[in-house]
């Protein structure tokens, strides 16, 4: 806490904030869905001990939901053998053992997911169980139209890069084309974040499919409120021109499924275009904020692409449960394009050019303001990178400390110790799904509030809650 910003933090007690709405309306739904999922696991098991432990986990989640809905105190986390428990409990004490509706939003939301995780880690039969796995893979399946569209585009692009078609262009024309492609790939990667599963409580599958298509992306360009992609591109190009042998890009991941798919599109493009020689992906270590990537999700995505026909046409238990009709088979071209992706990505992975590197820092309860002081080894590792891309809303909240900044505060100020001279180049690709926002031109927040659904004079920054608007912000910590 001593390393955090002194700017006040968003708190669940503020009824005009999304903090309050998420605690009141969203978290109970998320916990209930988790309970349902474990129930299904219990029914599917014929082992008495698994069933018994499953019931204890359900009781633990029901207790958590009760305490939340009755505004009880957050209780210290029970020891599950992991080293981060002490930090969570120390902070809880420092916060004065708060109640659910009067606690900093960021800490309490992390605490909720960490507490659910203790229930599983303390069991012997459910230790690595992910209550969100079914949702993650089935939403990826329902992203089929956008996945197919992007796979075709990716194959064409990478084939052009590899067969040297683009080499016939002049160096200047090639650079201009590379820049446009970089911007497009990054924007695909940005909007892939608009559809995280924790918002599924109010979005239908059809809504999601509409949000993922290329038409939607073009229409959304005007919704990027600040766009620093050019500056980020220039740093990668400069490193390439300087002839550096190892040029690494890191992606601090957000959600699994479609978003991870587009993250891999960006990663694969950077490697094929020579804008990076290595890409390191940073997933979470425990099930987190519903849809966040854990290492198993990476494997699940590659497995799906390894045999795309089987993945799309087979009906999973989850499809049957949701009464989803079986999908029609892929055309041979579509199946081939998806297999192309699999070959490339698994090839990069096997060669060590695409690595996945978990760290428990990402699931601690605090902001990234603490990174240099509390996770110096991770900080040093990120300094080795040319560019660290932070995906999504939660990472943005953690970068900015989830504090009530004036929205015109420069991004470089709001990220504190990860700002100038931190040694880390930060690029945030974030669709706005929470109150905190910085780096806007003076007066822009007021304008957005006055637009339809923007919050008006209610005191709520409603425009920033839906994922419709985005910010792409860069800070060169090596400058
Ligand atoms: O529960 C609210 C929240 O933490 C918001 O920050 C956001 O709506 C969502 O959960 C997580 O979004 P993302 O997956 O983009 O981090
Ligand atoms: Mg997420």
From TrEMBL:
Q: Which residue numbers delimit the Damage-control phosphatase ARMT1-like metal-binding domain? A: 23-447
Q: Locate the transmembrane regions by residue number.
A: none
Cofactor names from the entry are: Mn(2+); Ni(2+)
Q: Which UniProt keywords apply?
A: Hydrolase, Manganese, Metal-binding
- E.C. no: 3.1.3.-
Q: What class of enzyme is it?
A: hydrolase
Q: Which Gene3D superfamilies match?
A: 1.20.930.60, Uncharacterised protein PF01937, DUF89, domain 3
Spell out the reaction equation it catalyses.
beta-D-fructose 6-phosphate = dihydroxyacetone + D-glyceraldehyde 3-phosphate; beta-D-fructose 1-phosphate + H2O = D-fructose + phosphate
User: Pfam families from the xrefs?
Assistant: ARMT1-like_dom
What does the sequence similarity comment in the record state about its family? Belongs to the damage-control phosphatase family. Sugar phosphate phosphatase III subfamily.
Instruction: Outline what the protein does.
Output: Metal-dependent phosphatase that shows phosphatase activity against several substrates, including fructose-1-phosphate and fructose-6-phosphate. Its preference for fructose-1-phosphate, a strong glycating agent that causes DNA damage rather than a canonical yeast metabolite, suggests a damage-control function in hexose phosphate metabolism.
Comment block on domains: Subfamily III proteins have a conserved RTxK motif about 40-50 residues from the C-terminus; the threonine may be replaced by serine or cysteine.
What is the protein name given in its UniProt record? Sugar phosphate phosphatase
According to its UniProt entry, this protein's organism is Phyllosticta citribraziliensis
């Amino acid at each position: 806490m001593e390393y955090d910003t002194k700017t006040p933090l968003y708190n669940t007690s503020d009824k005009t904030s999304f903090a309050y709405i998420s605690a009141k309306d969203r978290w109970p739904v998320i916990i209930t869905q988790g309970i349902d999922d474990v129930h299904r696991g219990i029914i599917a098991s014929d082992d008495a001990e698994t069933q018994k432990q499953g019931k204890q986990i359900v009781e633990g989640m029901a207790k958590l939901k009760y305490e939340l809905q009755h505004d009880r105190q957050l209780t210290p986390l029970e020891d599950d053998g992991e080293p981060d428990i002490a930090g969570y409990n120390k902070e809880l004490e420092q916060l004065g053992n708060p109640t659910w509706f009067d606690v900093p939003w960021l800490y309490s939301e992390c605490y909720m997911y960490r507490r659910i995780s203790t229930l599983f880690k303390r069991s012997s039969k459910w230790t690595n169980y992910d209550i969100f796995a079914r949702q993650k893979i089935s939403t990826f399946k329902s992203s089929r139209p956008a996945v197919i569209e992007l796979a075709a585009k990716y194959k064409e692009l990478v084939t052009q890069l590899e067969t040297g078609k683009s080499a016939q262009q002049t160096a200047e024309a090639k650079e201009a084309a590379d820049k446009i492609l970089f911007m497009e790939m990054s924007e695909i990667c940005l909007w892939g974040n608009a559809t995280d599963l924790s918002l599924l409580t109010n979005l239908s599958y059809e809504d999601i499919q509409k949000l993922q298509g290329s038409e939607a992306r073009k229409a959304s360009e005007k919704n990027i409120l600040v766009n620093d992609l050019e500056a980020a591109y220039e740093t990668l190009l400069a490193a390439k021109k300087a002839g550096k042998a190892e040029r690494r890009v890191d992606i601090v991941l957000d959600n699994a499924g479609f978003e991870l798919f587009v993250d891999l599109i960006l990663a694969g493009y950077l490697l094929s275009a020579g804008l990076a020689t290595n890409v390191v992906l940073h997933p979470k270590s425990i099930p987190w904020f519903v849809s966040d990537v854990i290492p198993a999700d990476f494997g699940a995505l590659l497995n799906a692409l390894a045999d795309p026909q089987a993945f799309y046409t087979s009906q999973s238990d989850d499809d049957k449960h949701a009464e989803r009709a079986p999908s029609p088979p892929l055309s041979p071209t579509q199946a081939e394009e998806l297999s192309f992706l699999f070959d490339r990505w698994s090839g990069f992975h096997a060669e060590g050019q695409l690595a996945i590197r978990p760290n428990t820092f990402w699931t601690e309860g605090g902001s990234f303001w603490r990174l240099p002081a509390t996770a110096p080894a991770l900080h040093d590792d990120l300094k080795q990178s040319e560019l660290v891309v932070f995906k999504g809303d939660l990472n943005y909240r953690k970068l900015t400390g989830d504090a009530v900044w004036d929205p015109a505060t420069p991004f470089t100020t709001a990220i504190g110790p990860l700002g100038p001279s931190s040694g880390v180049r930060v690029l945030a690709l974030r669709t706005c799904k929470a109150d905190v926002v910085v780096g806007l031109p003076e007066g822009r927040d007021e304008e957005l509030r006055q637009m339809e659904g923007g919050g008006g004079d209610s005191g709520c920054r409603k425009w920033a809650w839906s994922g419709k608007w985005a910010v792409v912000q860069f800070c060169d910590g090596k400058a």
